[in-house]
Amino acid sequence: MALLSATKVTKSFGGLQALSACSLDVERGSISGLIGPNGSGKTTLFNVITGYVTPDTGTVTFDGVDITANRPDRIFARGIGRTFQLTRIFARMTVLENMLVATRHEESWWRGLLVAKSSAADVAKALELLDFVGIAGLAELQAGALSYGQRKLLELAYVLVADPDVILLDEPAGGVNLTLINAIADKIRTLNQAGKTFLIVEHNMEFVMSLCDRVTVMHQGCDLVAGTPAEVRADSRVLDAYLGGGDEDEDDLREAVAGA
Amino acid sequence: MLRARNLWWLVVLAAFGVFPLVVTNPTYTTIAVFTVIYMACASSWNMFSGYSGYIALGSAAFYGTGAYTMALLSIHLHMAPGAAMFWLVPLGGLVAMVFAVPIGWIALRVRRHTFVVITIAIFFIFQLSAINFGFTGGTSGLNLPFITWGYQYYNVPFYYVGLGLVIVATTLSALVRRSRFGMQLLAIRDDEDRALGLGVRTHAVKVTGFTLSAFAVGSAGALYAMFVGQIYPQFVYDPMFDVSIALMTFLGGLGTLSGPLLGALLLEASQQYLTIQFSNGSLYLILFGALFLIVIMFMPQGIVVALRDRVTRRAERERAAVSANEAPLVHDVPRDVAVGGAG
Other CB atoms closer than 10 Å to residue A74's CB: what's the count? Predict the structure, then answer.
């Protein structure tokens, strides 16, 4: 059974049908990709999985448990972490404090009133993860002073701090330079080998095709095709979905999707 | 460094401690009583609104509730006028907290402007209730047991109890700031949805902070009622109260520990002084307007933050001058990271 599944999820915002009977399976230990034209519902599906959006119908299960419409903090506590398409960090807190906010604690929330903001162990773990993504030297800096690429790394680091089983990345390679893209891909592979499962939304086809074991293509709110990168490349429906959508850089996509 | 700062706090506290011994003129000690009352309120308001970014403009509901707690209990318990009534001061704070839980529960479901409007609406519900219910005495107000301490020393006990409230509010604010709970409030200020997605129980944290901040405000309201001896709905449920403590906090520095104290000290003391000196109730409004324009234009983050930035910048310049070529600049680290990470 898949570790994380969305089954026939439907969601409309007013007259806009963002998701219609969309299904998705993420196997334990995989790096799964989620691609599709702009507006095909990828981020909405992320929001449904992580509890930010309540679906009209359909279910989301994680490790055999129904987590549909749980609150985001509950879902995070269960072991699903995510990043956002536009990086979202705590700009007026230090990089280290950003990490500490995400540190998972087993005791009740009100205990937070009685304890210092961090224990030595929390700080050690936070610094270790910052070191892993390569920004430990910036721990005391205000997070708002970080560059866009560094924010992406910080987001990855503070999702890791609570040690989630599944990590959802919304465009990890968007808007960052090629060197950093490769660095991020390396981190994902390393973490995957250590047992983390990934679900990645990304427009950079090379990134997705080289990294993912399995790719799901979304189109107009439904899952259109799912399979290995090779299978997806060979499927003519995928190309139609992208080109029919009137995307701007058609030639690039044709090359990328068809596999140059 | 840290010790030097603690020493500063002690020096300031000592100055406040000896103030009524040095300045015995009742005109000035009256100003001092109002000043410590507002310092406690601004510090407490900042502990929630400053840290979380939720600008509440209905705290007068807690101030008035504390005042009515003091008035109603002292009257109906037939208390002898005197120092025993001070026991009702913290009780006023606790009653305000009891009201704060459902208010926070409802108001904190919405954000930003909607939250501000809802807190104002809730405040008016309290004011209108006080005007219209029978047990509050309506618009004719309530007279508390009349305290007959000598004119010369009347203010002094109120001043010290008020100073105690300032210490309680500021200590609570400092403890919250150091706690994990306080860090979660700051995270909510920066990006509430992100905090929620990182496991922070945002609603519970907000309601708790809101409720804690009601304590010192309610206590201050109770102290005010006892001090002035008679209360009216329009004076204890006063919309200007919230505008004042918010402006004091913004002037001193929103979200800082000392900012609200400094802002309240400057504004409340100068307002009372100007009103007495020129017996013109609205002169201070013109001066405040000018002062705020200056502050907003030249130090929008408040006096404390502006001063701190200046000190930090000077320290950095000095450090940079000493080790100009030795240490790598902070800005170089990211580039190294990006390249190093690829390897």
Answer: 14
Q: Do B197 and A82 touch (CB under 8 A)?
A: yes
**DSSP-derived secondary structure letter, A217:** E
Structural domain includes residue B203:
yes
- Rounded Cα–Cα distance for residues A252 and B10 (Å): 68
Mutate to test the interface with B, among A49, A74, A90, A133 (most CBs of B within 10 A): A90
Tell me which residue has tokens 């601004």.
B42
Q: Which residue of B has its CA nearest to A137?
A: B333
Measured between beta carbons, which residues in chain A are less than 8 angstroms from residue B211?
A: none
Please choose, from the candidates B33, B100, B39, the residue with its C-alpha nearest in 3D space to the C-alpha of residue B66.
Answer: B100
Write the pLDDT tens digit of every residue in B103-161.
Answer: 999 999 988 889 999 999 999 999 999 888 888 888 888 888 888 888 878 899 999 99
Q: Which amino acid is at A98?
A: N
Inter-chain residue contact B338 with A93, CB threshold 8 Å: no
Chain B 152-181, residues with CB within 8 Å of chain A CB atoms: 176, 178-181
Nearest-by-CA chain A residue for B342: A183
CATH number of residue B122's parent domain: 1.10.3470
**Residue-range domains of chain A with CATH:** 4-88+165-258 (3.40.50.300)
Residue closest to B155 by CA, chosen among B340, B61, B24, B323: B24
Q: Which of B194, B331, B335 would best serve as a mutation to test chain A binding (most A beta carbons within 10 A)? A: B194
Please tell me whether the overall predicted TM-score, pTM, comes out greater than 0.90 for this model. Answer: no
Would you give the DSSP letter of residue A146? S
Please tell me the predicted confidence (pLDDT) of residue B337. 38
Rounded distance between C-alpha atoms, residue A176 and residue A86, angstroms: 12
Nearest to B201 among A73, A104, A117 (CB): A73
Give the tens place of pLDDT for each residue, A136-171. Answer: 889 888 999 988 888 988 988 888 888 889 999 998
Regions of chain A where pLDDT drops below 70: 243-260
* Residues from chain A contacting residue B208 (CB–CB below 8 Å): 110, 113
- Torsion sign over Cα B147, B153, B155, B158: negative
Among A63-72, B62-71, B86-95, which stretch is predicted with the lowest mean pLDDT? A63-72
Going by the DSSP 8-state scheme, the letter that residue B46 receives in this structure is I
What pLDDT, on the 0 to 100 scale, is given for residue B125?
93
* Cross-chain Cβ contact A112/B198 below 8 Å: no
Residue of chain B nearest A76, judged by CA positions = B199
Q: What is the ipTM of this complex?
A: 0.82
- Is A112–B330 a contact, with Cβ atoms under 8 angstroms apart? no
> Is B16 domain-assigned?
no
What element of type H or E holds A129? helix A120-133
Whether B328 maps to a domain, the answer reads no
- Tell me the pLDDT tens digit for each residue of B251-263: 898 899 999 999 9
Which residue bears the tokens 């983050």?
A: B301
Asked whether residue B289 is domain-assigned, the answer is no
- Using the beta-carbon criterion (under 8 Å), do A137 and B333 form an inter-chain contact? yes
